[in-house]
Please model this.
Amino acid sequence: MSSPLSTHHAPVQAFLAELHARFAGLSRGQVATYIPELAKADPAWFGIAIATVDGQVYEVGDTRQPFTLQSVSKPLVYGLALEDRGRAGVERIVGTEPSGDAFNSISLEPGTGRPRNPMINAGAIAISSLIEGASPAQRSARILDTVSRFAGRPLGIDAAVCESERSTGHRNRAIGHLLRNHGIIADDPEPALQLYFEQCSVLVDCRDLALIAATLANAGVNPVTQQRAVRSEFIDAMLSVMTTCGMYDYSGEWVYRVGLPAKSGVGGGIIAVLPGQLGIGVFSPLLDERGNSARGVQVCEALSHGLGLHFLQPPRPASSSLRARYDLAGVRSKRRRSAAEAQVLNEHGHRTRVYELQGDLHFATVEPVLRDITAAGEALQHAVIDFERVRHVDAAAVRMLERLVDSCAPRGQHLVLTRVRRDLLPGFGHEMNPRHARAASFHPQLDFGLEWCERQLLQRHAAPPASPSLASLAEHRLCAGAGAEDLQHLEALLDTHRFDAGSLILRTGDPAERLFFLVRGEVSVVTAAVTGVSRRLSTLSAGMGFGEAALLSGGVRTADVRADTQVECRTLTAEAFAGLAAARPSLMICLLRNLLQSSAETTQRLTLEVAALSAPRP
Model:
């Protein structure tokens, strides 16, 4: 049972106690019986814990009752494998697609034999085979050390559970031999199976679960011990597969209802992660029909709704003037970036923070925003304040904004003001130190203000600039993975078109009949807004493509495409593309795969943007 917290923490503690009381009587489900040792669990055991990224732990119920980690170990060992083998090495062995099947399903990709993802048993067994070490004992010790660093204390293996797993793990053993048959496991699968049984048998408690989740939320560093459990560069991969696959065939509904990366285990544990903020651990051995803790699922949904934790929920205004706040790590400008540029913005986008304001600004309403910017200190390089929904700014607020610029300049910060009507800030700058004038700038559109900030971050962190042209079609994103013969065949099908800067390449209403491979220059996709002013949907550079609707649905163009510079495109007609099904199916598959990847990136970007921009008005 957890120790009582001080009165200072009473609200959170009281909320957890309320949830515990609400769900303690839930008797639906049953303990796992296919592993005999797990059948000994008391159905009444029930604990809830929350750990923040600054090390505060709240807990209620049976949070110190030991149980085995089971499948909650999978993302942690996956992270260790990524460190040992790198992303490419792991992805050759295990995919990242949701299977939509139960945890013990034999879900392998047709042809390759790769397990669909590392969260199902097949994927986890394959991942175990990737752990490096001179001997089985050394590999087991490395896994135990990694999990211990996540939990923040030395952990051990429950020998009885491990033996029970080994002696009854006939389905997992069959999966192991099937993986060997496909060449996923190169040698005798028994060592990998034993390692998998051992990782599932690591003893933890509910408090450990919360700290494991908080370590994931804290970029791989345990918030209590400050020990790194896994390199931060792999956290996104771990959380991604937890989001899409962590709750097995319940993962989609979990994201809809709870909206947190999570992982469950048949021992009764669930971890859930709110990146950058906190981790949740719930323990209750009663399992639902999918193998997830029945109480755990209910508690996590209640926590998400009660505390507003859904990762796609728009941030709530801190005051009546703050409509939304987000940073460039999640919401970008409409300029599409190269992989190298995107990586820099992923790593350093938090150094640009956007504040969308609304209503009337006066001292009381603007002060919380200024305080937030000031408190960020030198960690914040750019503060973007958007005025589109601001109706009025009084003189006191103008003076406060001027003082903000004066305080930002010595710290190397820059204030970016976007969509400011001329009547909103009369006299702005009159009371500002003239030497600090360059610490503030105005941009007519938020999108262009974000792009300006991106450019500054990329220059500051020495990101390699995108190439203005491609040397060959093989360098194009849409051709990634294509073989030499396929590329030669594609070259014969493509037409070449050149456009002067400022000219329209495509017009709204034109027939959608060609896919464009941009090989030199830049283009912008624009559409007319309700006001009649053109709105940029995206800006593309060499190596990107547009007009993919021609291959998918035909019809007519729904936006204009304008050449921003001298442009050269190669084009593929829809008719020629359709002919690839018979002439070059491998090329068609390659193009479709790359188009799908591009579409997925766009969807992800738009989803993040909706999450940031859809905060409800007061």
User: Anything to note?
Assistant: The radius of gyration is 27 Å. The CA atoms of residues 162 and 320 lie 56 Å apart. The longest strand covers residues 382-393.
